[in-house]
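B., you asked whether I could sanity-check this one before it goes into the benchmark set. Here's the sequence:
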Amino acid sequence: MNKNSKKAALICPTQNNMKSATIKSSAKYSGVKYSVDRVLPSAFIFNKNLRKVTIESGILEIGNKAFYNCSKLGLIIIQRNGIVRIGKNAIKGISPK
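And here's what the prediction gave me:
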């Protein structure tokens, strides 16, 4: 998080056993609101329970291996005005549907 620019990135979820996740385009920390514009590399790597991800508009980048080997992940919903860059192997090893 950068307090001056009020920008942040999703590093990793707080629970590694979640079945669904929504990646929001803003977050509040210590009373300060930050805009979130990317998911960092390996954020959800090897999460064997994750089945669905919703990515809000405003998220511009999915880092390398962000969802790598999330073998049960079968649905990724990307809201409009989103993703500009998807990193190498970001979705490799997810469940094909």
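One thing to flag: The chain has a mean pLDDT of 88. Otherwise nothing jumped out at me.
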